[in-house]
Amino acid sequence: GIQVEQSPPDLILQEGANSTLRCNFSDSVNNLQWFHQNPWGQLINLFYIPSGTKQNGRLSATTVATERYSLLYISSSQTTDSGVYFCAVGGSSGSRLTFGEGTQLTVNP
Amino acid sequence: DTAVSQTPKYLVTQMGNDKSIKCEQNLGHDTMYWYKQDSKKFLKIMFSYNNKELIINETVPNRFSPKSPDKAHLNLHINSLELGDSAVYFCASSHARGPYTFGSGTRLTVV
User: Fold this and answer.
1) Between chains, do B45 and A33 touch, taking CB under 8 Å as contact?
2) What CATH number should be reported for the domain holding residue A31?
3) CB B73: neighbour CB atoms within 10 A?
4) Is A84 on the interface with B (CB under 8 A)?
5) pLDDT tens track for B31-42
6) Which domains does chain B have, with CATH numbers?
7) Which domain holds residue A103?
8) Distance between CA atoms of residues B90 and A9, nearest Å
C-alpha cells in the first residue's frame, strides 16, 4: 500500500511565527487531505487537495502530485493552531485514506 | 446541525463484554468508515461501506462486526472485548473520494 511520511514529527513555535509541514507519499494519488486534530481530539478537515494550491485564511496547502509531496503552510500561528496535523492520501483503490503519523504542533503564547 | 454523530462519546467496560458504537451522518454522503486511533495517535482504517455495501474490510479480529442498516448509519459491534481494544474509534463519511467529515470519536477503555 501507499506509504505516507510526515515531517517534522514535532514542532514548537512562538505565537506569530510561520511554519511549513511536509507530507511525502510513495505512489501516485488521486485523493489527498489535510486534517487538524485539536487538543480535545476532534478531527477537522482543513483541505481536500489532490493537486494544486488552496488557501483558507492563514492556512494554505500545495500538492505537487508528480513529485509526490504536499505542503501545509501556517502563517501568523496562534495558540489555537496547536494539535496534530495529519496528511492522508488515497490511491486508485477508491475512497480509503492512508494516514501519516502526524506532526505535533505546539504554539506557545 | 449537519454532522457525523457518534454515540457514546466514552465507553468504559470490562474484558469479555460486548459493546456497540453507533454512527449517523446527515450529510447525504454515500460512503462511511470506521477508523481506529491508537495510543500513539496513529489512524488506521477498519471498515468502509458504500451505500450499505461493505467495500473495505481490513485485517481486524472478527470480534469486530460493522453493520449498515442504511447509507446514513454505520454501527460497530465488538464482541468479547480485550484490553488491546482500548483506543479511540472514529466514524467518518464522504461522498465517494471527496473530503471526509469525522465524528467526534468514541474513547473505549477496557478494564
Assistant:
1) no
2) 2.60.40.10
3) 16
4) yes
5) 999 999 999 999
6) 4-110 (2.60.40.10)
7) 4-108
8) 22
